[in-house]
DNA sequence: AAGTCACTCAACCGCAGGACG
DNA sequence: GCGTCCTGCGGTTGAGTGACT
């Protein structure tokens, strides 16, 4: 027996709110404050579900909300946070005063995701589509010979791609077109940027996104080495060869012919946000990772070890996003 | 001018987790 | 420990609107 509905749905109004209804909510909250939303409709004289009232208040009527368009800085922050924590809209919204999770989610789905796709960046992984497809080719046997064509279409006319229109990311496209669900790979924290591994990021800079220019990624090269424009050329660039882990993971089938164009030797650059607070530590960690790339350990074990290492060195990661 | 399409965003839905008796 | 209620969250839907043919 399932949970009963929160209200009698046949007798409550649905759909857009009128100014009069808004005024009733505002008047009630001004006097009594928020809380116990299930009782508010009755007390405020509204024929609405309490849940609907709460949503109207939190997403629209709250006095601290901004109703203007997103600034470039806010967009940059959304992209950055999404790269780190994914679609945890409430957590991202907390970083944006005056914005709700619904605002952020809608803005991502309608604007930012499309902008990334148009630039050839997969909005799920935040990596160049060419690289995502190349990596997939590596683990699926190397017969994805149409990936370059796909990447061209992805970058130039994403809206004309029926598959993309529905699935919106290279990874989802791969899943849809092949029926293969490489779950261990798909869920890998190295691919889906996990905060515990976040010192190793592609620097598909938000600056480029906001300026409307294309990123430095190449649609033809599967060996991505992306560096930050302001990075000191003298400074050593820590690298992290996660593909080594992939090839050593027993879950993922090994393939022949992963050399030349199919080899994914990806250079991860240092995340600027970690530089400011934990520069020496993260440099050390990154350097340790870059120099070794041991293929003798399993991918999962290495990730877990790295998580532990990161958590011990960057405890603020736990607090930043409410883990 | 009328019809169609694409896009935006407010609102809804179902689920999960916490609080409480 | 269990059931109920409330709240919060993320995914999805659909009405409204502007652009295009």
From TrEMBL:
Any one annotated GO CC term: nucleus
Any GO MF annotation of the entry: DNA binding
Domain of life: Eukaryota
Domain HTH myb-type, first and last residues per copy: 9-65, 66-116
Region span, Disordered: 271-294
UniProt keyword annotations, A-Z: Developmental protein, DNA-binding, Nucleus, Repeat, Transcription, Transcription regulation
Domain Myb-like span(s) in chain numbering: 9-61, 62-112
Pfam families: Myb_DNA-binding
Regions of compositional bias (Polar residues) in chain numbering: 271-286
SUPFAM superfamilies, A to Z: Homeodomain-like
Keyword hit for Cell membrane: no
Biological-process GO terms, alphabetical: anther wall tapetum development; callose localization; microgametogenesis
InterPro entries per the UniProt record, alphabetical: Homeodomain-like_sf, Myb_dom, Myb_TF_plants, SANT/Myb
Keyword Nucleus: yes
Main location: nucleus
Localization of this protein: Nucleus
Record-linked PANTHER family: F14D16.11-RELATED (PTHR47994)
Protein name: Uncharacterized protein
Organism of provenance: Arabis alpina (Alpine rock-cress)
Taxonomy of the source species: Eukaryota, Viridiplantae, Streptophyta, Embryophyta, Tracheophyta
